[in-house]
Each structure stands twice: as C-alpha cells, then as structure tokens.
Amino acid sequence: MKVSVFNMAGKEVNSVDLPASIFEAKINRDLMHQALVRQLANARQGTHKAKGRSEVNRTGAKAYRQKGTGNARHGSKKAPIFVGGGVAHGPLPRKYVKQMPRKMRRAALRSALSVKAGNDAIVLVDELTMDAPKTRDMKQFVQTLVANESALVLLPGRDVNVEKSAHNLTDVKALRASYLNIRDLLGYDKIVMPLAALDVLTNILGTDDEIEDVDESGEEA
Fold this sequence. Notes:
The chain is of the alpha/beta class. Helix content is 33%, strand content 14%. The chain has seven helices and six strands, in the order E-E-H-H-H-E-H-E-H-E-H-E-H.
C-alpha cells in the first residue's frame, strides 16, 4: 500500500510503501475487542470498598425492647436495614487485571493499523520537529494535515517540545511509537507519524509471526 509523505507545511514531498505485514494484515475484530477490554480492565484501580456491619462505628446496644413495640426484633443498629448501618454484600478491593499473550496483543495492533490504513487514516510526514513548545504551531500543523478530525501523533522517541505542544489540545495526543496501544489507536480518527516513527513500528510489530485465526481463549483455531 503506497501512502503519500507530507512535510510540516502540508505539501506532498514523497511516497512510501507501508509494510504489508503490519498495515495489510488480516483484520480480527474479536482480537481487537479482547485487547481493548484487557487494557480498560487493567486501568481500573479496584480500590472500591464499603464497610460491613462489623466495621461501622455504631452502638451495639439494643435499639428498643424485645417485645411490645410492634417492630421486628433487633439487637444492633449496625444491621444493613438501618440508616448508618453496614452495607450487605458491598464492594471489596479486588484486581481487574487480565492477561493476554504478547503475540496476541501485537496481532491486535496490526489489525487496528490495517483498519486505519484501509480507511486512509494513516498520515505520514517526512519529519516532525519543533524548536520550542508552541500549542498554536501544533494546532496549525494538525489542522493542515487532518482538518478538523482528531489525531494521534506518533513520535520515534522522546520529544519534549512536541509532547508539550500537543498537551493542551483536546483532540490531539502525542505518543511515542513504542508505547502504541489499542485504546489510543482506536480512539482517534487519524494517525500522524514521521517516517522515523514508522521505522520504530516496523521494528516492533514486524518481528512476530502473524496470527491468522485466534479465538477469545487465546487458542489458535
């Protein structure tokens, strides 16, 4: 698949062939969904906690006499039916971590990149450099390439000026190519990357054998 290469002014200067093993891979939507669910689950802190009746600070004295009031028999205000009492079957701290083999995670990224490439959502630039952090310059650069669509800007490595320039833009995110993940990949309309970032993706995703058919259990069909 041949894609045009632009400069920072938005003019086409060249064209390159995207690696077919990465940008023309077999699309496995179930695998992409599994990878996205895993990432969202692993981002949960799991620190939710509700106090049970043995943990609330209330009196243990009998609320009212055993007989003659017309009310049900109770010996403690800590019971869940009373205001301020403990919570019955409330949430407790737990881990939501899900495991997924690296080969499957990378296959999901290839599927997502193939979807983006098929929708002409891959935008290549010859280089992306900024002398100083300038949100205005970054906004103009992104609008020149992708108009009013959201954009994920992939960088070959750490670039403080570019990262800070994109920090205050709501529809733009600068991310190092080595940190590419399924959530950011599917969450933006366009993927903008310099050729150096494309080389990083090729080195990372071009090493594993492609997974053709994988079910949700992780076993090859």
